[in-house]
Write a structure and sequence with these properties.
The chain is of the alpha+beta class. Helix content is 36%, strand content 14%. Helix 1 (30-47) runs antiparallel to helix 2 (73-93).
């Protein structure tokens, strides 16, 4: 299959999606989703990865990050998280072979209302799947930390998130929960643009991404999205032919491990 795009330009927000090999439900148990979170926390410590939101399903992940000036932070972080998660799973289950499907896909997200919509889209993933009725019920995502950031061992870059959303610390929780409640009233549906585009945003933003990618963007076309004011930079042909729809039958919290020892996350 074609290889997924992952072109990084410093100073942008990126929505990353990564699927398990051949759509296998390798993340169906809570313990394995917690391993992925543990290594994401380690990537934050090692490389200063700025995580804005995430969610983990039974067979793929969504991760929203801010890319600083060092364009190697995201690739190094993804290599660490994906590699160590796969190693631990294969070792525990005595499994051999690939854990992840090819390369992860990265989509640049505009920092206006498109960022809000992407944040909400990520948090409603398991609601669309029918696994939970509200994102607060899903412990393997960022929603609860956005509303109630812990005093220590925070995974999300809350200062960066507030800066990008232009919302102060006192009101972020109430404003964000309001966005979620409004989205829950609407019909939940999958929006492929968030996971299959090179960039999503206003026309000027998408044109800027295409210009900065230079020769890497040759053949990629700017298209109007389903929502007014939304444009996407798409591949000439589907470069990441993947259905990030949800299969909820394989999800389980049985045998879950709850990592309450964040101080020891540097081990391993």
């Amino acid at each position: 299959m074609p290889r997924a795009n992952r072109y990084f330009v410093p100073g942008y927000v990126w929505h990353i999606t990564h699927r398990c090999h051949q759509k296998e439900f390798l993340l169906k148990f809570g313990r394995d989703r917690q391993v992925w979170i543990r290594w994401l926390f380690e990537a934050k410590k090692r490389y200063d990865l700025e995580v804005l939101n995430f969610t983990i399903t039974s067979n793929h992940i969504h991760l929203l990050v801010y890319g600083g000036e060092d364009r190697e932070v995201i690739p190094r972080s993804m290599q660490l998280v994906a590699g160590r998660t796969a190693q631990e799973y294969n070792r525990r289950t005595q499994r051999k072979g690939a854990f992840w499907e090819d390369r992860y896909h990265a989509t640049a997200i505009d920092t206006d209302d498109h960022l809000v919509r992407c944040l909400v889209y990520i948090d409603l993933n398991m609601v669309r799947a029918g696994v939970v009725q509200h994102p607060s019920e899903w412990s393997h995502g960022g929603y609860n930390e956005i509303l109630n950031p812990p005093a220590r061992y925070r995974l999300l870059a809350m200062n960066r998130l507030r800066e990008l959303l232009s919302i102060n610390e006192d009101t972020l929780g109430s404003v964000y929960s309001g966005w979620i409640e409004e989205a829950l009233k609407a019909e939940a549906c999958r929006e492929p643009a968030w996971s299959e585009s090179v960039a999503v945003g206003g026309k000027k933003f998408v044109e800027g991404i295409k210009e900065e990618l230079a020769f890497k963007a040759i053949g990629r076309k700017i298209q109007e999205g389903l929502h007014a004011g939304t444009n996407t930079l798409r591949e000439p042909n589907a470069s990441y032919s993947v259905d990030f729809g949800i299969e909820n039958g394989a999800l389980s919290d049985d045998n879950s491990l709850f990592w309450s020892i964040f101080p020891d996350l540097s081990n391993g």
